[in-house]
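Student: Hello, beginner here. Can you help me understand the protein record under this note? Any guidance would be welcome.
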Amino acid sequence: MRQLFELAAQTLTQDAGPSPLALRVIRHLRCDLTEVVLVSQRFATWEHVNLQRGVDAYLAAHSPGADWFGPPGAAHQPHQDMLQLLSMPVHVGMLRGGPRGPSPAGAVVRGGAVRGDLGVGVASYGTAAIGPAENTEVVALGLVTSAAPDGNPVVIGLREFGPQCLLEILAADRSTATATRDEIERLMRANDVFRGQVLSFTASEHHGNSLVTFLPRPAVAARDVVLPDGMLEHVERHIIGIADLSAELLGAGQHLKRGLLLHGPPGTGKTHTVRYLTGRLTGSTVILLTGRSIQFIDQAAALARRLQPSMVVLEDVDLVAVDRDFTPNGNPLLFSLLDAMDGIGADADVTFVLTTNRADILETALADRPGRVDLAVEIPRPDARCRERLLRVYSRDLAADADLGEVVAGTEGVTASFIKEMIRRVVLVSLRAGERPPVLRGPHFAEVLGEMNGEHQALTRSLLGAGTDSAEPARRGPGGPPVPARLRHFR
């Protein structure tokens, strides 16, 4: 029976001629299908939105108002290029059935051949992000007729499959197709949707391919970054000050690429400082890599160079860049990180910002070699003055009926994260007591600190960056939770 169907299909296609889709292409190109030249370029799937922007800009300049059309059956043939799809009698495979399924519903016989699977249809569309909360339409499968920069006819095709998207140019000669492709790529970069955005790489569920996610740019005021006197200004001079003087520095023969290492205990404000810098660099592209996304350091570095001025942030870099003595078999991600930092080029306006809780175990080649990290800043646990500022930052709009000086004295050795959580718990205690709006009272502070410094909260203190030995030893009050000595009188 299968042989019978194959014989029938071959008989039907002997004198069928080109499909309607192929006819539309060759009539526009004014040449036979055998003379058509295909020039293509592959891109990562996260570049699809930029490719669409490049094509849209090209069409606006060379063929405004052109309509997209599509080959419905081509979506099932990702391993073949557009020229092969236009040339083959695809209904033969469809008649066979098997893994690709039976003949599509609606296919008809016209002029002695099966039509429908490669007839002229509408293009297929999808959506792609162009910002944290904004999407745009992209062509997932389609063709459009246009003209090359020299005026000769071309057909432009877009396809997305798996982890890639494909630009295909059909023309009567290679130079025409190549010139069209090159101009689309130029326009693609000129209209890059990633420029000036805050981005993060993630892995999709499809074969582990990489995706780019847009993040909102944080708005953190300098008064909300509580660091020792002069520290934030020092960091700003190294990151933002160089960016402001980039042209003058290059003119003086000095390099622009720079590396900043922020280290210190968890919860002291490293990530908060990065958020502040991200908000300040409004004209720069920021690429954030954390956790598993550090595996995309090569793509991130290439994107940073393309979109400079830019900043690449690698949070908790000690998870990747551990000294090679700790990993006898080597660390591929570490080598990728080092290569990426070296490969950017000294003239690139690119900043690498690394954060770590364990500067002591970082790879020596990363931490010490000039040109990779040229400024290391330790962010310590806040002193008394900083703790008082933190209390005021986190309780800014709340009423207080407590001696904050006593609270500051009773929180020695804790971190900013600890103080932020303490304020939240004090608010909860006030609300549970029926106070609307909540009031930060001395007894509430005593209760919360007694709980947070209890012997069963050691892990919580560690996760908040306050070690078990960081705060003053607690004393257990009669019938209640342990209370630090300096706060016992609040009861």
